[in-house]
Amino acid sequence: MDRIDDASATQDQKFTDGDAGNGVLGTVVNAEFLNGIQEEVVSTIESTGQSAAGADWTQLSKAISAYAAGGSYYTDSGSVNAMALNTVGSKLAPAAYFDGMRAVFKPNFSNNSLTPTVNVAGLGVKPIVDNFANASCAIGSVDTAYIVELIYVASADSFMVLNSDKNDAFNLKKGTVSVSRLPSSVLSDILTLESLTASIDFSLLAAEDDIISIKSRLDALEV
Question: Under a CB-based contact definition with an 8 Å cutoff, are residues 210 and 201 in contact?
């Protein structure tokens, strides 16, 4: 879509009412401009699975809501250590990577390399890291047992894993992560801690008191 470019528009491609008293006509609203608006709106509506319907004046807002709620979710068609993410249905992908862009997906394979990559919607292959200090990704940080969320950091030209084992362990120490979604490696460490303390009832892991108790033990050991 482009701004109005009819000869009757202003030099900076804007509309004008003209000046009837001095014989200056207003901007001509031509077919090209109107078709541009129509097709931009309809393509957005149809990309979310809706069929354009003249009687429904809420379709564009529904389409915007669909992108806001699930526009960052992709399906994985890649291989081990080389994730290839695709848009869901007919949703449109961004034109290029941008700082803060998120990609959420269920991986087909867990990474068994420290240097996995991802290609989101054909925009180009980028490294996946969970530690910018050494630009690597711990084995199993991309785990088929979990929904994985990545965020693109332009300064590093890489995707950061937001829910890796290391990040969950850090959040557990802060008491902000649910035990029920911890990776097996972290849960194993907690079970080891439990055997040492014998003071946590692990049949009630979902209880807030148990999480607080785990946190206090971890803080005491400075893990």
Answer: yes
What is the residue range of 197's domain? 184-220
Is residue 67 within 8 A of residue 91, CB to CB? The reply is yes
Question: Hey, what's the torsion of the CAs at 152, 157, 163, 164, to 10 degrees?
Answer: 170
In sequence order, the 6+-apart residues with CB closer than 8 A to the CB of 120 are 74, 85, 93, 97, 101, 103, 126, 159
The CA distances from residue 66 to 88, 173, 191, 194, in Å, are: 11, 35, 41, 44
Length of the chain: 223
For residues 147 and 209, membership in a common domain is answered with: no
Q: What is the pLDDT of residues 50-89, one digit of tens each?
A: 999 999 999 999 999 999 888 999 999 999 999 999 999 9
Residues 118 and 192 in one domain: no
| C-alpha separations of 108 from 74, 164, 173 in Å | 12, 16, 30
Return d(Cα 177, Cα 186) in angstroms, integer.
Answer: 12
